[in-house]
Amino acid sequence: MHIMVFEELACSHLHDNDMLARLFPSSLGKEASKCFYSLEEQSITSYSQLKREFVSQYQHHMKRRPTIVDLAKMRQQENQSFETFVVAWKKVSKFIKLNEKELK
User: Fold this and answer.
1) Do 62 and 4 touch, CB atoms closer than 8 A?
2) What are the C-alpha distances in Å from 73 to residues 21, 36, 78, 86?
3) Residue 25: which of 52, 50, 8, 56 has the closest Cα?
4) Residues 72 and 97 in one domain
5) Does residue 73 share a domain with residue 101?
6) pLDDT per residue as tens digits for the range 3-59
7) Residues 17, 6: one domain?
8) How far apart are CA 52 and CA 38, in angstroms?
9) Are residues 53 and 76 in the same domain?
10) Do 1 and 34 reside in the same domain of the chain?
């Protein structure tokens, strides 16, 4: 999910794997940033490898669909424009399937 939202936001750079690899760390939260910056220097050589490493590390988070609670917890990042935040929010909202229990 995170990678899909990141690529949506970085759509103007999708043709430039080096730029995507440089931008990706800025999209990470606190825990994921710690993990990223603990990698051995020069151990990631491409955006594709970075994606594989990220998915491997966090795939346990990928097994469930986002919920309405996840959507409610989304916050605009300090360096993120409102328009970009809305695009990301809408992207996540498409994956939410509401059921009657969640609405009560």
Assistant:
1) no
2) 26, 23, 15, 13
3) 50
4) yes
5) yes
6) 777 887 777 777 788 888 888 888 888 877 887 888 888 888 888 888 888 877 776
7) yes
8) 16
9) no
10) yes
Q: Which pairs with CB-CB distance under 8 Å and at least 24 residues apart come from 81-88?
A: 84/9, 87/8, 87/9, 88/5, 88/8, 88/9
| 58 shares a domain with 22 | yes
Instruction: State the pTM of this model.
Output: 0.49
* 47 plus 83 within the same structural domain: no
What is the pLDDT, as a whole number, of residue 83? 93
Helices (H) and strands (E) counted in the chain, each on its own, are 7, 0
Query: CA torsion, points 43, 45, 49, 92, in degrees to nearest 10?
Result: 100
Total tally of structural domains belonging to the chain:
2
75 and 59 belong to one structural domain? no
Higher pLDDT, 5 or 75: 75
- Count CB atoms within 10 A of the CB of residue 74: 14
Full residue range of the structural domain in which residue 75 is found:
64-104
Query: Which tokens go with 104?
Result: 């009560």
